[in-house]
Design goal:
Layout: H1 2-14, E1 17-19, E2 23-24, E3 30-36, H2 43-60, E4 65-73, E5 82-89
Antiparallel strand pairs: 1-3, 2-3, 3-5, 4-5
């Protein structure tokens, strides 16, 4: 029962984030932006959603992901929170 509750909680947190498609930046790096859909989303869940999307993108190209930088914007519980993950595949 506890396992079901834990899995349900993880599912709710995952549904609290949205991730953009991969964009190419002028400097040659790639980026994705993840956003919290509700004020309940934690910075970790938003960041992890972006990192997971970037890793999947590189894995689909049979490459590994290297994080170049991560930018955060917003205040928790006070509006939109966004995290931009800048990365490269090698």
């Amino acid at each position: 029962m506890k396992k079901c509750i834990l899995l349900a909680g993880i599912g709710v947190l995952a549904a609290c984030t949205a991730v953009s498609s991969v964009d190419k930046k002028q400097n040659g790096y790639l980026s994705v932006t993840s956003r919290g859909r509700t004020s309940l989303a934690s910075w970790n869940s938003i960041r992890n959603a972006g990192l997971k999307h970037a890793k999947a993108y590189c894995r689909n190209q049979d490459k590994q992901m290297h994080t170049v930088e991560i930018h955060t914007n917003g205040v928790r519980s006070a509006g939109n929170q966004t995290v931009e993950v800048v990365f490269e595949c090698f």
